[in-house]
């Protein structure tokens, strides 16, 4: 029984560790950033749609720093590396030092 609980907890923890590159199409990820800023993104085909500051924009895959997932439309850029993300070019930005927010369904165990 204990093994089953530990395995279940581990699987839930892994499911919460998604990035823009590993989400299902249409699934939304929410990010909380420095200075109380927030944005969300969802995967659409090979691109992502970013919603921030009351605006939604489609960003295509772009070249970025080694090890970073980067999407851009030329004016706006989303970059993610090591579990942190940044968003530049948006009104009310930049959005820096962003961490993925937990889903509402994730239980508070402590």
What would your notes on this structure say?
- This protein is mainly beta and 110 residues long.
- It is 13% helix and 43% strand.
- The chain contains one helix and eight strands.
- About 14% of the residues have low confidence.
Ordered list of secondary-structure elements with their pairings:
Elements lengths: L1 H14 L12 E6 L3 E8 L2 E6 L2 E7 L7 E4 L4 E5 L2 E5 L6 E6 L10
Antiparallel strand pairs: 1-2, 1-8, 2-3, 3-4, 4-5, 5-6, 6-7, 7-8
CATH names the topology as: Lipocalin
The DSSP helix count reads: 1
CATH architecture: Beta Barrel
**Count of folded domains:** 1
Integer average pLDDT? 77
Report the radius of gyration as a whole number of Å. Answer: 15 Å
- Uncertain segments: 7-21
SS strand fraction = 35-45%
Q: How many beta strands in the DSSP annotation? A: 8
Order of helices and strands: HEEEEEEEE
Biggest sheet descriptor: 8 strands, antiparallel, barrel
Structural class determined from secondary elements: mainly beta
- DSSP helix fraction: 10-25%
Overall 3D form:
globular
How far apart are the first and last residues' alpha carbons, in Å? 21 Å
Spatial ordering of strands, largest sheet: 1-2-3-4-5-6-7-8
